[in-house]
Design a protein that fits this description.
Length: 124
């Protein structure tokens, strides 16, 4: 995903993407920020997910875990994003094959979260 992709979704100037260290289930992480928006994207792989928590061994299970954790706040399934996606009050989780993404909302609308998740999944 490029800064121009993000700007096209959220408006305003191109945001700055700052890579952050991974850890735990996170294989890589990136913070995006601009005057109009900010969000955090974390990516887990089959290897990083499987090594972190045997109870949540893969991307599909991680999305189900996210849904359970945010269900009190009205989590809902979202169609047409990877192999499955869930939108909650804190953000959005999705998976495609063995890859899991989680987007922490910070200052995005539901529609912007969905569009960003679709764009990320298209680039996998």
């Amino acid at each position: 995903m490029t800064p121009a992709d993000v700007s096209g979704i959220v408006g305003g100037p191109d945001p700055v993407a700052k890579p952050l260290p991974g850890g735990g289930w996170v294989a890589s992480k990136c913070a995006w920020s601009s005057p109009l928006s900010s969000f955090l994207v974390s990516v887990g792989t089959s290897a990083s997910l499987g090594a972190f928590d045997p109870a949540v061994p893969d991307a599909k299970a991680k999305v189900a875990d996210f849904k359970q954790n945010v269900s009190a706040a009205g989590a809902k399934d979202v169609a047409e994003i990877g192999d499955g996606a869930v939108l909650g009050s804190t953000g959005l989780a999705a998976y495609s094959g063995g890859t899991y993404i989680e987007i922490l909302r910070l200052s995005l609308t539901d529609d912007q979260l969905v569009q960003i998740a679709k764009r990320i999944m298209e680039s996998l």
